[in-house]
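May I ask for a protein sequence together with how it folds?
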Amino acid sequence: LGRRGRAVLSGQRRPGGLIRIVRAAEATALGGALRAVAEAVFTAPPWSEAPQDAGATAERLLADVAQPGFVLAVAEAGPDVVGFAYGCSGRGLAWYASHPDVAGDPEPFELRELGVLSRARGHGTGAALHDAVLARAAPGPYWLTTDAHAYPAVGLYRHRGWHTVALLPPVRRPSPGLLMRRRSQARSEEH
């Protein structure tokens, strides 16, 4: 167990922070910290969102707490939240892609956000957050969107078995988005 009796998911402390799963009830208490991380991450290039739009990420996260299959992981360095990732069950992205998952496959899981402060990057923090969320998610398939110019994020996702399904038109920013899909956990581990 890590400091404060929390389980250390990786079995050790990471240079980028302690990774832990947050219960839905605790997510509200972390709202301010999650908003600060979202604003720091998503106002920077390539996202370059306005602070109020980036901060709205935390508000969407708190609204999604009630969604089926909600999973939130945070990275902490000392008392500070330095990153987070979350997702929940949903068919919206699969529907947008007109993918057959909508019709009959198990409930898709959408990785809705993943953000890590610049000071915690380069230590595997994003990968650990990604893995922690998907380890507790429904068996998949999995869906996400990201900025096409977020090269470290795109590289992380591709390294972890995600494939681009569609290029999305730019919305409120100059660069396009990517709609990505990953097969279920069991199928991905076969590769």
